[in-house]
Amino acid sequence: MNLSSALHSAFGSRLRVEGQLPSFDGANGWLNSEPLTMADLKGKVVLVDFWTYTCINWLRTLPYLRAWAERYGEQGLVLIGVHTPEFGFEHDLENVRRAVSEMRIAYPVAIDNDYAIWQAFDNHYWPALYFVDAEGQIRHHHFGEGEYEQSEAAIRQLLAEAGASDQGAGLVSVEAGGIEVAADWEDLRSPENYLGYDRSENFSSPGGTALNERRAYAAPDRLGLNDWAVAGDWTITGRAAVPDEPGARILYRFHARDLHLVVGPAAKGDSVRVRVTLDGQPPGPAHGADIDEGGNGTLTGQRLYQLIRQPGSIADRTFELTFLDPGAEAYAFTFG
User: Fold this and answer.
1) What pLDDT is recorded for position 13?
2) Do residues 265 and 302 lie in contact, with contact meaning Cβ atoms separated by under 8 Å?
3) Could you write out the three-class secondary structure of the chain?
4) Which residues 6+ apart lie within 8 Å of 171 measured at CB?
5) Helices 3-11 and 148-161: angle between axes, nearest 10 degrees
6) Residues 6 or more apart from 172 whose CB is under 8 A from it?
7) How many CB atoms lie within 10 A of CB 162?
8) Cα-Cα-Cα-Cα dihedral sign, residues 268, 269, 272, 278
9) Mean pLDDT in runs of 10 for the chain (336 residues)?
10) Please, are residues 176 and 60 in contact by the beta-carbon 8 Å criterion?
11) What is the pLDDT of residue 303?
12) How far is CA 55 from the centre of its chain?
């Protein structure tokens, strides 16, 4: 898609005014920058990106964000990542700082632990992009993944309106790797699912969930597609499933190229060994980035772990993870 067709397909012939850019005064802190005020942003084209570091949908947009910040920063674009946390551990500034470093994020990040900026934008999504012109007017938005050509076309139009004349030829070229690779949408039949009882679906261990108390669970004889279960001693809370003994297992019947789990040690500095199987066997070449071919891995922090990436044809498969040490918390499965 060329620039003119990308722009026309997304916006017709022009970008309409959707509102004014709210201030960032509610930020709890900043990374990679001193606090940015409205005066600092005057005359700049601003791209505001709402994110949280365990969100797979946002992670798959990150290669484009890096590329846009690098190409268009000298032309007057200011990309601001607003980190609004979903899980409790994402409120920890050191966790966010580590994620920013490991993910090679060099643009300014506003810490939005109290959701003040989120509410000022009346935002409801991760990821969410808001495109702001040099007059401080929101001219476009995009929620979720995709439409990268249209988003870049919007950036270029707003920069052109602001007087930037040398934006480079063509759109950025992005080669994503690892967890940032786009989902295999044609074969994706498993949606995100949370493990805390507040938001979970399709829990299939016999007897259901014992809320907030330790209990011995068993796996059912059969799991249907997108059913999940636990076995061994677990405590299931509103926000997480907590294995209470070594050998506790979690099972999921899924259909996707990739399987991810937001999980980690409950205590900072701890590590938890895990072992993964796929249809009862070591995953071999279907292992994800965070385990080896034998299915062995170690959880060293609370984040999103890629546990399965299938290289061949996709079918319904049964994933099983055994916690070899106590002390973990498991939050959500996502797929790609």
Assistant:
1) 52
2) yes
3) CCHHHHHHHHHCCCCCCCEECCCCCCCCEEECCCCCCHHHHCCCEEEEEEECCCCHHHHCCHHHHHHHHHHHHHHCEEEEEEECCCCHHHHCHHHHHHHHHHCCCCCCEEECCCCHHHHHCCCCCCCEEEEECCCCEEEEEEECCCCHHHHHHHHHHHHHHCCCCCCCCCCCCCCCCHHHCCCCHHHCCCCCEECCCCCCCCECCCCCCCECCEEEECCCCCCCCCCEEEEEEEEECCCCEEECCCCCEEEEEECCCEEEEEEEECCCCCCEEEEEEECCECCHHHECCCCCCCCEEEECCCEEEEEEECCCCCCCEEEEEEECCCCEEEEEEEEC
4) 3, 6, 149, 152, 153
5) 100
6) 64, 67, 68, 71, 152
7) 16
8) positive
9) 47 79 97 97 97 98 97 95 98 97 98 98 98 98 97 96 83 92 97 97 97 97 98 98 98 98 96 98 98 98 98 96 97 98
10) yes
11) 98
12) 2
Please report, to the nearest 10 degrees, the dihedral formed by the alpha carbons of residues 98, 241, 245, 282 taken in order.
-70
What amino acid is encoded at 142 in this protein?
Answer: H
Closest CA to 180 of 83, 309, 58, 301: 58
Q: Specify whether the CB–CB gap between 53 and 83 falls below 8 A.
A: yes
In whole angstroms, what is the distance from residue 114 CA to residue 106 CA?
23
Strand partners, 111: 29, 83
Q: Which residue type occupies 63?
A: P
Q: Are 261 and 304 in contact (CB under 8 A)?
A: yes
Q: Which amino acid is at 119?
A: Q
Q: How far apart are CA 149 and CA 78, in angstroms?
A: 18
